[in-house]
């Protein structure tokens, strides 16, 4: 009986038991899935916080600029109001300056004309002016045409202040520029008094 030959193929290694994945091995996968979500949520929260802060800053800045513009507008209105008020107060100063520049009564040449039918009225008015310091006041014989119920003091250019001084001395309110017809009767005088009927009752 023949002997059995040994099988040249190696014996199969015993099968290793399958290793079940423990819960510890599974956790890294779960953590890797949850980590991006948390990162995204944190980024969104940061963006929202920055946007909220920016909105608060802008709103406070807008309020400040509104207050600044309102304050500037108020200051501008106040400045304009003060300028207008100053202009109104300065307007009457021209007449006061013209009165301040009036010549000395003794240096003012005044011609008095009789504009009424009352004889000698011009001489009496010139006498009153001389008593008040107008030593160069003189009555002339010429008489302007027309009727003159009210006394008028007329003046040549640049002598309004002098005429106002004469009118104040006589208690006359009518002051006007020199008329051509009157200037031809006044000679070299720059102030002319055309005596009206109202002076007949005042002068004795």
Keywords for this structure?
single chain, alpha/beta, Alpha-Beta Plaits, 2 domains, 5-stranded mixed sheet, 5 helices, 5 strands, 10% strand, rod-shaped
Description:
This protein has 204 residues and is α/β, with parallel strands linked by helices. It contains five helices and five strands; from the N terminus they run H-H-E-H-E-E-H-E-H-E. It has helices at residues 23-90, 93-100, 121-131, 160-170, 180-186; strands at 110-114, 137-139, 152-155, 174-177, 191-195. The chain has a five-stranded mixed β-sheet, with helices on both faces. Strand 1, helix 3 and strand 2 (137-139) form a beta-alpha-beta unit. The protein is rod-shaped, with a radius of gyration of 57 Å.
What's the quick description here?
This protein has 204 residues and is α/β, with parallel strands linked by helices. Helix 3 links the parallel strand 1 and strand 2 (137-139).
Walk me through the topology:
Elements: H1 23-90, H2 93-100, E1 110-114, H3 121-131, E2 137-139, E3 152-155, H4 160-170, E4 174-177, H5 180-186, E5 191-195
Parallel strand pairs: 1-2, 1-5, 3-4
Antiparallel strand pairs: 3-5
Helix pairs in contact: 2-4
Overall helicity: 40-55%
CATH class of the largest domain, named Alpha Beta
Kindly, what is the distance between the CA atoms of the first and last residues, rounded to a whole number of angstroms?
197 Å
Number of strand elements: 5
Give the CA-based shape: rod-shaped
Structural class: alpha/beta
Q: Describe the biggest sheet? A: 5 strands, mixed
CATH topology assignment of the largest domain? Alpha-Beta Plaits
Number of domains: 2
* Oligomer type: single chain
Residue-averaged pLDDT: 76
Helix-strand sequence:
HHEHEEHEHE
Low-confidence stretches: 89-100
Named at the architecture level, the CATH assignment of the largest domain is 2-Layer Sandwich
The largest sheet has its strands arranged as: 2-1-5-3-4
């Amino acid at each position: 009986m023949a002997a059995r030959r040994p099988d040249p193929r190696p014996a199969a290694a015993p099968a290793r038991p399958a290793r079940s994945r423990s819960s510890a091995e599974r956790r890294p996968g779960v953590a890797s899935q949850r980590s991006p979500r948390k990162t995204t949520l944190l980024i969104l929260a940061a963006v929202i916080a920055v946007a909220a802060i920016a909105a608060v800053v802008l709103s406070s800045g807008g309020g400040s600029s509104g207050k600044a513009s309102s304050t500037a507008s108020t200051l501008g209105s106040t400045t304009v109001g003060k300028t207008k008020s100053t202009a109104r107060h300065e307007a009457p100063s021209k007449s006061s300056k013209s009165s301040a520049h009036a010549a000395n009564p003794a240096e003012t040449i005044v011609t008095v004309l009789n504009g009424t039918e009352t004889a000698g009225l011009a001489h009496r008015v010139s006498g009153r002016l001389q008593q008040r310091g107008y030593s160069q006041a003189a009555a002339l014989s010429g008489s302007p045409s027309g009727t003159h119920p009210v006394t008028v003091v007329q003046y040549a250019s640049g002598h309004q202040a002098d005429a106002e001084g004469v009118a104040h001395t006589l208690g006359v309110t009518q002051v006007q520029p020199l008329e051509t017809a009157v200037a031809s009767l006044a000679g070299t005088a720059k102030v002319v008094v055309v005596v009206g009927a109202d002076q007949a009752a005042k002068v004795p």
